[in-house]
Automatic annotation (TrEMBL), chains A, B:
Gene Ontology MF annotations: lipid binding
Comp. bias regions, Polar residues: 260-277
Taxonomic path: Eukaryota, Fungi, Dikarya, Ascomycota, Pezizomycotina
GO CC aspect terms: eisosome filament; plasma membrane
Full protein name: Eisosome component PIL1/LSP1
């Protein structure tokens, strides 16, 4: 089978936490010093949560750039003085801008999921002293047995060990429970957010393609009279369609029905994962209100009021 | 209508290139000095192309972080000593890693589209001298007419102006053609790439959700014997399904059929936009080969060879 069933690096197989020094990182970098403050048990997750932060920042940056590009595209298109380019670039800009907003929502959903992982890390942190305590007592007993096998302290220590073991048993069970529940919750949320972003961006991209198809790119001959742009109404209708489709979008709830034999998990899923899905917020396009040209003004422009492709060129 | 039909900022309406100084940017920042080197006509697109670069970098970073998180998740899961967590986290890691690869492919597609925009910018750059030349001659004629209306140079200048106008007419037609074609091509490619990334990530996320549903997160009681993990085969099958679904993925070619009345544009679309779609490369999961545990080794681990959830805890 020439396909990966695992992504673990081979060098690290089964060696546990002690292998972290083999990653070739410098001993005294700030990052590694910080990591060292974490108890051994929670180190890996501590780093993973930091990486999730970088991931979130990257998607946030992508969303921001997308929105900025959308405005730039619209303003560039206006400046070309070509009626068709001006209208299409502006409306494609609206679509791109909404894609950027979806990217930003995705980043926020990832951030919520990251918060859930922290619950595991915190439990790992709190279980470490329990493990350490148990090990320390066992150690003491072993030493004492070899040095002073008759010591009366041995009885006390054995009692302490039984108590420490009982306490640790509870701690480990808590760790198992929290780890499984929160891992499932965190990545279920990430996958659902991925689906939401993807499906909404597909809607937007499809309508974006429709807009571009309104742009007649058959070559003009020098001196041709400027072709009239007649697709203003169609272009506006496409934005309406995009808005309607986004409003109608729902998460396929079938995704959360147990498909394996793990029926137990099903209920937990549904209860813990309503937050990333959220109420389908009145979507899209609305946030542009106020900083755009009003519908009325656009109307005037579209009917050719006051400018034409040639008119612009004469001015220059 | 309380919805945006435009994303242009109001302050900038119809003022054209001259408004670029009103953006409140500092006069002597390095960025603005660089921008100044560009002819007026191509300045906006020059900046937009720079912003596209930031967008690409952001998606690249997101892809890289995603792949890194995937490995970290897998290695963290192994270290928990919980058989179920170990297997599920590893396979979820495979899915996340492939999602990261899709993000990276997306960044590359955006980069190709950015290259197409450069063709517009370069044409804009080359048209600027033609506009300037024409304007300069017209200016000279106007000055001369007011100062020496009888000058014989006027005849020569008028002839020069006719030539300059003819040359500019060609240049402007070229600009219109290149702008329309390349704008359509560039953003068609971006939208198609968006659809490809989205649809593939939906496939991956859905199988990721299936994996997580194999994780039994009903609470354990302290001292319970470790639950046997029995979903190894199912988990492996889910990765197989994900790979098959990715292989079967095709772009909906109906997306490129003209839906508006602009049938002319249809053919151009198909011809210019084969590159972002690419042949559906044998996808997914394959790049993990070699650095992962082999199928055989996994098999041994899955059958509980040599480790159990409790075994790990005793060691510590």
């Amino acid at each position: 089978m020439n396909r990966a069933l695992s992504i673990r690096s081979k060098s690290n197989s089964r060696s546990g936490p002690s292998s972290s020094s083999s990653h070739g990182r410098k001993a005294f970098s700030l990052a590694s010093l910080r990591g060292t403050v974490q108890p051994e048990l929670s180190k890996r997750l501590y780093r993973l949560i930091k990486s999730e932060n970088n991931l979130i920042a990257a998607h946030e940056a992508a969303g921001k750039e997308r929105v900025s590009i959308a405005t730039q595209l619209s303003e560039w298109g206006e400046q070309t003085g070509d009626e068709a380019i001006s209208d299409i670039s502006d409306k494609v800009g609206v679509v791109l801008s909404e894609m950027g907003e979806q990217e930003d929502s995705y980043a926020h959903a990832l951030d919520e999921s990251r918060g859930v992982l922290k619950a595991i890390r915190n439990t790992e942190k709190s279980v470490q002293p329990s493990r350490d305590g148990k090990a320390k007592i066992a150690d003491e007993i072993a030493k004492l047995k070899s040095k002073e096998p008759e010591s009366t302290r041995l009885v006390v220590l054995e009692q302490e060990l039984v108590r420490a073991e009982a306490e640790n048993l509870v701690a480990e069970a808590q760790l198992t429970n929290v780890t499984r529940q929160k891992l499932k919750e965190a990545y279920t949320a990430e996958f659902l957010a991925t689906i939401e972003r993807a499906e909404k961006q597909v809607i937007l991209a499809k309508h974006g393609l429709r807009l571009l198809q309104l742009l007649d790119d058959t070559p003009v001959v020098p001196g041709d009279s400027a072709r009239q742009y007649v697709h203003g109404n169609q272009a506006r209708q496409i934005l309406n369609d995009a808005e309607d489709d986004l409003k109608d979008w729902r998460l396929d709830t079938g995704l959360l029905e147990g498909r394996g034999q793990q029926q137990d998990g099903g209920e937990h899923f549904v209860s813990t994962n309503t937050s990333p899905v959220r109420s389908p917020k009145t979507p899209a396009l609305q946030h542009h209100n106020g900083n755009g040209v009003t519908g009325h003004e656009r109307e005037a422009t579209e009917n050719g009021g006051g400018r034409s492709a040639t008119g612009k060129e004469v001015e220059v």
